[in-house]
Amino acid sequence: MAYQPKKRKMTAEINVVPYIDVMLVLLIIFMVTAPFVTQGVDVELPSTVNAKPAAELNENNDRAPIIVEVSQDGHLGLSVDNQDMVRGLGVNELLTRVRAELQLNPNSSVMVGGDSRAPYAYIIETLDALNQAGVSSVGLMTEPLEQ
């Protein structure tokens, strides 16, 4: 009887283990570098003598105010409930987020902080847009004047 080799069926398989290893390494790299890639604009608020802390203005409400930030070059930012400032928002996106937050918490106060170097027109345009969005009361943020 002659030797007959077994006929093997050809299978094409891709080994995914190296791909998983590469993906895990990339994930670790992004997780490590993400905290260092924060973008932000420092806003220098104007100073006043009679400035009150936001805690005094917000005594009847246990939630932090909605803070709208206007940078020197007119870019808008939003911080809700003491979270990180989300910058680079357009007017429509800002108004949508403020309306949504006010529907969830109608007693939340809205505070606008404009950079002291920002043109007055940027602040007024932001206040006007908030007014048209239905925000009835807006506070202006300042820094206490050092004496």
What does this entry look like structurally?
With 147 residues, the chain is an alpha/beta fold. The strands form two sheets. Strands 4-3-2-5-6 form a five-stranded mixed sheet, with helices on one face. The protein has a two-stranded parallel ribbon with strand order 1-7.
Write the topology of this structure.
Elements: H1 17-33, E1 47-48, H2 54-57, E2 66-70, E3 76-79, E4 86-89, H3 91-104, E5 110-114, H4 120-132, E6 138-140, E7 143-144
Parallel strand pairs: 1-7, 2-5, 5-6
Antiparallel strand pairs: 2-3, 3-4
Short précis:
The protein contains four helices and seven strands, in the order H-E-H-E-E-E-H-E-H-E-E. The chain has 147 residues and is of the alpha/beta class. The strands form two sheets. Strands 4-3-2-5-6 form a five-stranded mixed β-sheet, covered by helices on one side. Strands 1-7 form a two-stranded parallel ribbon.
List the keywords:
147 residues
Please state how the strands of the largest beta sheet are arranged side by side.
4-3-2-5-6
Q: What class do helices, strands and sheet pairing give?
A: alpha/beta
- Taken from the alpha-carbon principal axes, the silhouette is elongated
Which stretches are poorly predicted, pLDDT < 50 over at least 5 residues? none
SS summary, helix count: 4
Mean pLDDT: 80
> What's the total number of strands?
7
Portion of residues within helices? 25-40%
Oligomeric nature of the chains: single chain
CA-atom Rg in angstroms: 27 Å
The biggest sheet amounts to: 5 strands, mixed
Beta-strand content: 15-25%
**Separation of the first and last Cα atoms:** 109 Å
Sequence of secondary-structure elements: HEHEEEHEHEE
